[in-house]
Amino acid sequence: MPRFSKAVSSLRSSEIRDLMTLASRPDIISFAGGMPGNDLFPVQAVEELYAQLDIKKKQAAFQYGPTPGLPSLLESLEGFLEKKGLPVKENRLLITTGSQQALNILAKAFIDPAEPVLVEKPCFIGALSAFRSYDAELRGIAVDSDGISIEGLRQEINRNEKAKFLYITPYFHNPAGILYTAERKEQLIAILQGTNIPLIEDDAYGDLYFFEEDQERLKPIKAINPDGINVCYTGSFSKILGPGLRLGWMLVPEKIYAKCELIKQSADACSPSFTQVLADAFIRSGQIYSYVAGVRQEYKKRAAAMVSALREHLPDYVQWNEPRGGFYIWLILPNEADATRIMTLAIEGGAVFVAGKTFDPAGRQNNSLRLSYCNNTPEQIAEGIPIVASAIRAVCG
Ligand SMILES: Cc1ncc(COP(=O)(O)O)c(C=O)c1O
Questions:
Q1: Do 332 and 210 reside in the same domain of the chain?
Q2: Is the previous residue joined to 170 through a cis bond, with omega within 30 degrees of 0?
């Protein structure tokens, strides 16, 4: 047996991932993936933008680039982020290979084996696996419909062994679907100030809002720019252009940036130049704004179709959120329910989702499940939700 490092020895494929391979049958309606619909990608627009580039830009696209990112993309992305009120001039921007890499780099920068980090419960699985890969002790804090539990956060912060950071996804949470209230963010800021616990604020979905009136709630904590907190803000092109570009970013204070740049250099030297050139052209053409406005409407339509099907078919004992943006609806079932059993039945019936324990930092609590509406037509949603609902009834009564 090879002698693996302590940090990675405990990493293994979950039973849910194994079940998912069963669900790759082409006739299965999948509410499992958190990826944009293939039909929504701006294929033609990007083809035209590439065709219009001069030869020097095209050559640069094939070349290695600087570790922090191509200067032209850093400049155009700064403009994009400044429109959200983000303090780009007082911080440093680092292009990463997906925002997953940003989380991995930050984890490497802060975590020594067995050290505690604070995460939401439930939490984005990619973040959990990045933190686990450095052997962190994950401390989950419950979320409700307004955001992370302030009482839970206070208790964790008052513990003797200080956490290395707090990681949150306040804008259309994956998997809980929620949007933090402005008040909850203010309370969170007040608690973190003066603790010397950095905040990792993951904003992968904030652009995909359905309601203009949510602007205040969508303002990143990084844009509020609170005194006395090192806010590490991460974002991504994955949901607003395409995950295949593998481009994300972090906007962080100078001191944290310096370490992260060194870590990135050792990981991949630079993110793909080819897709950086494309993303830069997409921003500079202004099409990013019109494209995102279009997909927002499409996801809103898909979310409405799922809400309507859930209202019609779910038993009353299931609690769930009506999404205000993003990709997800989170169902909370009675305490004793086992979402893996429900999932097995749903797969037999022809539909699949992700069972809740995937997102539990402790990997146990399983009376919940995540449905994605981003990659299905309203017709597929209308056909698939009754299958999920009948699997829930078969297990929970
Ligand atoms: C909350 C959240 N953060 C980060 C990511 C990582 O995205 P990417 O690495 O494609 O930028 C995802 C992907 O699903 C996500 O849901």
A1: no
A2: no
Residue 138 lies in a domain: yes
Residue 221 has pLDDT above 90, yes or no: yes
Q: Is residue 100 part of a domain?
A: yes
Do both 272 and 296 map to the same domain?
A: no
Q: Are residues 273 and 200 in the same domain?
A: yes
Domain end among 267, 287, 307: 287
pLDDT, average across residues 96-124: 97
Mutate to test the pocket of ligand 1, among 174, 240, 275 (most ligand atoms within 8 A of CB): 174
Same domain (yes/no): 215, 271? yes
125 with 92, same domain? Answer: yes
CB-based contacts of 305, cutoff 8 Å, min separation 6: 373, 378, 381, 382
Q: d(Cα 106, Cα 101) in Å, to the nearest integer?
A: 8
What is the 160 CA–ligand 1 centroid distance (Å)?
32
Share of the chain above pLDDT 70, in %: 97
Treating both helix axes as pointing N-terminal to C-terminal, what angle do 273-284 and 287-313 enclose, rounded to 10 degrees?
90
Residue 171: which residues within 8 A CB-CB, separation 6 or more? 179, 180, 203, 205, 206, 209, 218, 220, 325, 326
Reading the block at residue 237, the tokens are 């092109």
CA atoms within 13 A on the CB side of 182: 9
Let me know whether 232 and 128 are in one domain: yes
Which amino acids bring their CB within 6 angstroms of ligand 1? 34, 98-100, 124, 126, 169, 174, 202, 204, 236, 238, 243, 248
The pTM is what?
0.97
- Confirm if 92 and 141 have CB atoms less than 8 A apart: no
Render pLDDT for 347-393 as a digit per residue (tens, 0 to 9).
999 999 999 999 999 999 999 999 999 999 999 999 999 999 999 99
Query: Nearest 5°: CA angle at 148, between 147 and 150?
Result: 115
Q: Is residue 48 part of a domain?
A: no
Q: Same domain for 141 and 235?
A: yes
Q: Which CATH number belongs to the domain containing residue 31 in this structure?
A: 3.90.1150.10
Q: In angstroms, what is the span from residue 279 Cα to ligand 1's centroid? A: 17
